[in-house]
């Protein structure tokens, strides 16, 4: 027999597929939909309710709590919107299992459920309406996918010339790869051995941390402010003799911070003056370069023999193009190219031709410029609206901002109840990064969520109201 009953002041649910116990009725002090969702979310977050466990029906829990089934149903909808539970029709509602196992651990933490919401601000992807149309470029690409030789130059000459002309510093060699993460992965594989240390931003991009785990490397976190990595934090990290520094010079994900030329010079001075790091390589991920409102910036001008600069075109021209450029010291780039020839070989020359067209066609150039203007406008509008409501977010570049909240999990549930999804902040933090977790500008310790501002096309005040309410909410139970 499935159902719930009250035993020793405890609500107990049972069924053929699972047996769950919810906390006592006294721990449901708020029996509104948000209050009920908050308690269940805390139990899931702490592991007291595990993936696959069956929840009571809305009627059963409603009866036990003395509320209507509709009230519980609204709570269940909020939990489903936050990706915590799922409905299996007549079988009931269940605690959701983690994301697919083919995703690395922190990437699972970033993965948004497919349940529809009114406004999804969790994905960190560009607004598809602001990408340049591919139709004209496709119409100008040859209908035949040809290549003269498997050993031909991996970058088509026209694209190589355009990339070299636009590079932020003089790179000895530039190659094209299948997206920024492909570039970062291949560079790290050439540099890092098991047990080596790599300096990373915290908060930073979760797949970087997953990559280091796979390589058996230790992440050494450094703190940020609105201009990127702090020189004194980098100086302390270099005392641990890392083999690489991995940073995002513009529109840092998740904070939206962009380095100034002065900050880049200061970081270069720190590296030059450090002891026992003569072989250190700086890897720069300029993932949002062409939609960033800040100018080109790199440590490569001051440290030309130590910097690998990666420029992605996903945010500006389309994630599914899967194309990025990597430039740096010839010896290192040649090693990366050589190893890649024993795998995929080269990035499709058809894709390279499409990118070349997009980078040189007047209409596409104008479309990217308009996207950059729109993202700037959206960032400023939502940032100003949040600060006016007492949520102290720092000015940000690109499509994301980093919002402090009293409780990450509570904020996710509250926003889901409002039909809005954001990304949990935990996957962006390196393990042990207690100083970094204090946030920027010396704020008190806090939790965070990442908001993809680039997806907010309209209704800024309504979105800001929901975000600000969620940021200040601490649910019953203190989770």
What does this entry look like structurally?
There is one protein chain. The protein has 479 residues and is an alpha/beta fold. The protein has two domains: 3-95, Orthogonal Bundle (Arc Repressor Mutant, subunit A); 102-479, Aspartate Aminotransferase, domain 2 (3-Layer(aba) Sandwich). Helix content is 37%, strand content 17%. A hairpin with a 5-residue loop joins strand 4 (85-87) and strand 5. Helix 13 packs across helix 14. The two termini are 33 Å apart.
Per the CATH scheme, the topology name of the largest domain is Aspartate Aminotransferase, domain 2
Q: How many H/I helices?
A: 16
Q: What is the terminal-to-terminal distance?
A: 33 Å
The radius of gyration is: 24 Å
Q: CATH homologous superfamily of the largest domain - what is it?
A: Type I PLP-dependent aspartate aminotransferase-like (Major domain)
User: Sheet with the most strands?
Assistant: 7 strands, mixed
Secondary-structure content class = alpha/beta
Per the principal axes of the C-alpha atoms, what is the gross shape? globular
Number of strands: 18
In the sheet with the most strands, the strands line up as 7-15-14-13-12-8-9
Percent in strands: 15-25%
Mean of pLDDT: 86
Count the domains.
2
Question: Secondary structure elements and their pairing?
Answer:
Layout: E1 3-7, E2 10-14, E3 19-24, H1 33-45, H2 58-65, H3 69-81, E4 85-87, E5 93-95, H4 105-110, E6 119-121, H5 135-140, H6 157-166, E7 173-177, H7 180-191, E8 197-201, H8 206-215, E9 218-222, E10 224-225, E11 228-229, H9 231-238, E12 244-247, H10 261-273, E13 281-286, E14 307-312, H11 314-317, E15 324-328, H12 330-340, H13 349-360, H14 362-388, E16 400-405, H15 408-417, E17 420-424, E18 447-452, H16 460-471
Parallel strand pairs: 6-17, 8-9, 8-12, 12-13, 13-14
Antiparallel strand pairs: 1-2, 2-3, 4-5, 7-15, 10-11, 14-15, 16-18, 17-18
Helix pairs in contact: 1-3, 1-15, 2-3, 3-15, 7-8, 9-10, 13-14, 14-16, 15-16
